[in-house]
MGC82519 protein (Xenopus laevis), 419 residues
Amino acid sequence: MAGAAPVYCVCRQPYDVSRFMIECDICKDWFHSSCVKVEEHQAADIDLYHCPNCEVLHGPSQLKKRRNWHRHDYTESDDGARPVQAGTRTFIQALRARSFPSADDLLLRMNGSQLTQRYLEKQGFNLPIMVPRLDDLGLRLPPPTFSVMDVERYVGGEKIVDVIDVARQADSKMKLKNFVKYFMNPARPKVLNVISLEFSDTKMADLVKVPDISKKLSWVENYWPDDSFFTKPFVQKYCLMGVKDSYTDFHIDFGGTSVWYHVLWGEKVFYLIKPSDENLALYESWSSSVTQSEEFFGDKVDKCYKCVVKQGHTLFVPTGWIHAVLTSQDCMAFGGNFLHNLNIGMQLRCYEMEKRLKTPDLFKFPFFEAICWFVAKNLLETLKGNSSIIMTSFGQRFIESWDSPCAIGLRANLGYFMV
Ligand SMILES: O=C(O)CCC(=O)C(=O)O
Ligand SMILES: [Fe+2]
Ligand SMILES: [Zn+2]
Ligand SMILES: [Zn+2]
């Protein structure tokens, strides 16, 4: 058998880079987490792993000793002296006890029928909008009795979902059926949060219709060509399932997308910061600082508003708003992201910032530059068809506000086409 690939695990299969493995500390063989029923996030808690074979003689695996509740690595020995890190139990307790200016001072409260494209084009879409009732939003959802088990029924238990281990602020993957099992178990050994389950390609898609306004404004909806070489980005239907005390630290949504969130049951608390020049500069330096997880970004800015989103409420967060989210009770929420014409300059600034921060592609808007070109092509056609119009305000904002090589190319092309 010379040359045969080495095999591992109880399943005796060759190495597969896409599957998470754990090494046995006794026999030194490697095991697929799914074959030995160890979740990826659990592996981080194991000090000495004993595989099913070695367990017979050597007893069960040994877990790391928890020395502190305020550090991501809770086995660190010099615990007392070191600062609290975001997402840990101590952090969440302190966050709950703090007071913040209320977002009521800032939010627009509206009915679904008032939230029209005309209204936003006239008034701008620069402040978060809270819609306390579903009426006239065009948003369709399953009933509030819809459970995490129902999500499993519609999406399929084998679906691999990204799961955030909140205390460690670490991302891992697990099967949806295992996350649902975890969610349903009252004795939860840790806090896990699912925020990136996009379900447009599942049976659950038919149960949710996005708000009319997001669909009307959406670049993907309006400008993505059916025959595009790139696959159409799917970012409009997310199902969020988080247990109490889940926390997502301050961020700007990918590509400077705007986003709607509807809480089906439970509650989420948003901490909202306005994307002023000063706040964006502070955010960029905080994001690239090594002590990011030990510094509460809300303390660095003039005002961080607290916004409680209760069951049945829908919150719209505009382009560039910096936000953190505490899941104050077990919660299921739906949400969707969209790019639009109302704040192109800010969208481009956010995209450029992601590039400077070297954000991995996985966390960026898929084919952001391609969609900008599709929008630009459409704009150009509009301009050519209306030669009397010197420049629409949309076009002006688009090409004046982007200072990257891509935009310089775009400006050159527009100039070329317009002679
Ligand atoms: O609910 C959460 O934990 C995070 C929500 C959010 O802001 C996001 O997914 O971008
Ligand atoms: Fe977000
Ligand atoms: Zn295996
Ligand atoms: Zn072993």
In short: The CA atoms of residues 256 and 347 lie 4 Å apart.
